[in-house]
Amino acid sequence: MINDSTEAEGLTPTDINELVNVVKKIHGFDFSGYSKASLKRRITRVMQLKKLEFYDLKHLLVNDPVFFQHFLEEVTVNVTEMFRDPHFYKALNTQILPYLSTFQHIKAWSAGCSSGEEVYSLSILLREAGLQNKSFIYGTDINTEVLKEAKKGIYSLRKIKSYAENYQYSGLPGTITDHFTILYDAASIHTELKQNTLFSVHNLISDNVFNEFQLISCRNVFIYFESHLQEKILDLFYRSLCPLGFLCLGSKEAIRSEAFKKRFKTINSKENIYQKIGA
Amino acid sequence: MELNADIKRRWQNSKVLLLAGSAGSFKLLFHAVKHLPRDLNKTVIIIIHRKKNFFSEIEKLFAENSRMYLREISDKDIIDSNSIYIAPANYHTLIENEKQFSLDVSEPVWYSKPSIDVTFESAAEVFKGNCTAILLSGANQDGAEGLLKLRNNGSLTIVQDPTDAEMRDMPMAAININAADYVLKASEIFQLLEV
């Protein structure tokens, strides 16, 4: 039964800290730099869905590794779309790809890729621009479960239907179904669009540079982090980009830090696309 | 009609004005934005349901017609005490603390993103009883639960009279769970805000 006072007041900052410490100690995941408001909302959501009191939640987090995977999935938001913010893809296509096409190789990193929709959107974009043969896209996430979905590249028809409108606004020719094989109530991304992709686990908070990229896209991930953590990850991205490589953040996530404003040139201020310049 | 002393006092004492609406609320919100005085000295947060993928001209139109500083919220924006903020389409707007917003892209609530409930609940936790929240016309039930939380935390809660609203479902949903301190017609709401 949910206690009335818990219901009225919700989790206290002390409760949240306690959970963050438990998760860090036992599972090695550090949520301490996460935005408190959304973290609290996500944890409250898990408690409501599973009808748990705070004490039960702590107990499960300590003793049940399977529950922890589920907790991780719920707390880290995995809402994504193909061609999310279609005007971003339009900007990539017209402003960035002509520049990237002059590179010998195009390595792209979709950081926080969740179930892979952004990786395949990039793959379609590069293919349509005739750049697929010299490009490779890495998709990373901290969550192994969503990466399994990403690797499959199979999405429900209901989802594909909702992505179709985005595709139309992105300015690409044809329709989104041109890139999928439809099987009953699901759609599978064409094999050739998967060939130049690789999905693997990477934790933006604790893991380091693993390659050099011409393009990094990390959209709607920073919103979950406090400013100091955003800066730490900006540094990781800076070090992971080749000279004059491009960084794409979400449309509501501008670079705010003065130190980093000097190290990136703004290419598109509406879509928050930046280019790495001298240190 | 003369508004009672209680509602006037509580409006004057509040530090934050939350204005929310869905279908049928645009004109009312525009009117409020247009007439709020430059020196209101309150933080105004507007949540209006809208469709994604349409570069809406709402911010532009509102900003051009407002005497207060007005902008669409970006992640980690600082909350000023004398400005109007509009929740962006496709994100939920959370109140991180008394000085900062943060955005969230998780699943829609009542098919809505931005959701009024999400922002209202967050405001209730952070601003406690310091808000005046006004829920206008709309065709679903978003906002009702959030408004109840605000009322329970001591904020002044006002719902547009369903008989006066273009779409009555949203105001009705709030009234049905007893989330409203006052049920007012649009003209009375404007009279209170003196706009």
Automatic annotation (TrEMBL), chain A:
Keyword Transferase recorded: yes
Source organism of this protein record: Mucilaginibacter terrae
KW Methyltransferase (keyword) present: yes
InterPro entries for this protein: Bact_Chemotaxis_MeTrfase, CheR_C, CheR_MeTrfase, CheR_N, SAM-dependent_MTases_sf
Pfam families, sorted: CheR, CheR_N
EC number, UniProt record: 2.1.1.80
Protein name: Chemotaxis protein methyltransferase CheR
Domain of life the protein comes from: Bacteria
Domain called CheR-type methyltransferase: residue spans: 4-268
GO biological process, one term: methylation
Listed GO MF terms: protein-glutamate O-methyltransferase activity
Sorted UniProt keywords: Methyltransferase, Transferase
Automatic annotation (TrEMBL), chain B:
Presence of the UniProt keyword Cytoplasm in the record: no
Keyword set, alphabetical order: Chemotaxis, Hydrolase
CDD domains, per database record: CheB
EC nos: 3.1.1.61
Gene Ontology terms for molecular function: protein-glutamate methylesterase activity; protein-glutamine glutaminase activity
InterPro entries assigned: CheB_C, Sig_transdc_resp-reg_Me-estase
Enzymatic reactions: [protein]-L-glutamate 5-O-methyl ester + H2O = L-glutamyl-[protein] + methanol + H(+)
UniProt feature coiled coil, ranges: none
Name by which UniProt lists this protein: protein-glutamate methylesterase
Higher taxonomy: Bacteria, Pseudomonadati, Bacteroidota, Sphingobacteriia, Sphingobacteriales
